[in-house]
């Protein structure tokens, strides 16, 4: 009895191995397949390079404002800022209009606010925006800010749509 069972199991294993041998396609990649894969990889790498170039261009143009003539209002604000910075009094409140251009990200805005003297540390404000998921909600336009505002008030101002 056991002998017959073992014989049946053995025959079953041999049959299963034979069926698998003839039905499984053990195709070795050909040179044509390899060339096609390499072409796809090269195409993806060129698309990645183009995307990186476009991203770098977009970040550069959004964060750099070169040779743009200042309006009279901006000149007046600049003079007020210079006067406030030269004043040693820490009680002076710096008021300015922050212009956020299309493509500006939260890092650029934070750095600009620090340069204007509205906030003391751009990295801390940037982490505040990240913590409250506000980095992608910054709105383009002109926003009135001053150094007496806390992070919450500044964040509310720069995430409010301006017409």
UniProtKB/TrEMBL annotation:
Keyword terms, alphabetized: Membrane, Transmembrane, Transmembrane helix
Bilayer-spanning residue ranges: 5-24
UniProt feature, compositional bias: Basic and acidic residues: 67-84
Disordered, as annotated region: 60-87
Name of the protein: Aminodeoxychorismate lyase
Origin: domain of life: Bacteria
